[in-house]
């Protein structure tokens, strides 16, 4: 039966089949008509292009299995068979169309039973609209919403962690002040004590400053930390008569805040010790800091060209009652550092390693 026979004459001088064909040629909608075996008998030009055909006639006699993946074609076929059997249309269903060439597009589709003048079901017809852009926008919005929710959750956890860290670091400062008080003697001046403690507090502040510049507030580049620490100490001694230069060779190694705070304090004590004791009687001094990855550990080589020590650094730490050396010993334990070598032959040199389990 010809398709044009389904259209009754309206009395217009223009043939209705011509009008309908013109509609199918120009509409942006995806329109099709199929027989009882789900073979195309007519379609819009837009659908033909979507299926890779240059003319509508190229679709005649073919099925969805010729254009789509087995999964999509099978679902469409079963839908059409159900519609013909029940005569119940499917309105506004969302279809994911997977093509044989790998393309994936989305459509909003309504499908109906196709009946002849005697009300006999002779196939199906449907109209679809491409909603790929809308679907992609919705998926992107859902993804962004999920990312935002995850980000907010992470920020809440991080905020709680920041409060915890600040509390712990305030406890560290309190402990250092108590140690400073216990080690104070008649030769200590208030200005010297304040200056020394200020440097220690700044070493903690540097960790937080660098931490807040990161995206996740959870990791610190050890090189940035060392450079900032050296700049701050150098600035605090700028009125001193001696000039100290730094040679820094540090790999990009990431520390967690739990490692960064004691490491920063430890390096602060070493640098302060050099400034205060190594260069006595000298107008110039040099400090070298080398930090490298070695066999899964972080190796630090700290040295200066000062006067050195009469004993090994390890022996000095064990015997000394000074606050600075006591802190070095305590902070080394906090980061689980162990000495590899120390030397006093040409100034002072101290090499130690510690594990960095998170990275």
UniProtKB/TrEMBL annotation:
EC assignment: 2.7.13.3
Keywords from the named record: ATP-binding, Coiled coil, Kinase, Nucleotide-binding, Phosphoprotein, Transferase, Virulence
Chain ranges of the PAC domain: 82-143
PROSITE patterns given in the database record: HIS_KIN, PAC
Domain Histidine kinase: 161-359
Reactions the enzyme catalyzes: ATP + protein L-histidine = ADP + protein N-phospho-L-histidine
Coiled-coil regions, chain positions: 134-165
Top-level lineage group: Bacteria
MF-aspect GO terms: ATP binding; protein histidine kinase activity
Keyword Nucleotide-binding attached: yes
Top EC class for this record: transferase
Database matches in PANTHER family: ETHYLENE RESPONSE SENSOR PROTEIN (PTHR41523:SF8), TWO-COMPONENT SYSTEM SENSOR PROTEIN (PTHR41523)
Protein name: histidine kinase
Organism (species): Gracilimonas mengyeensis
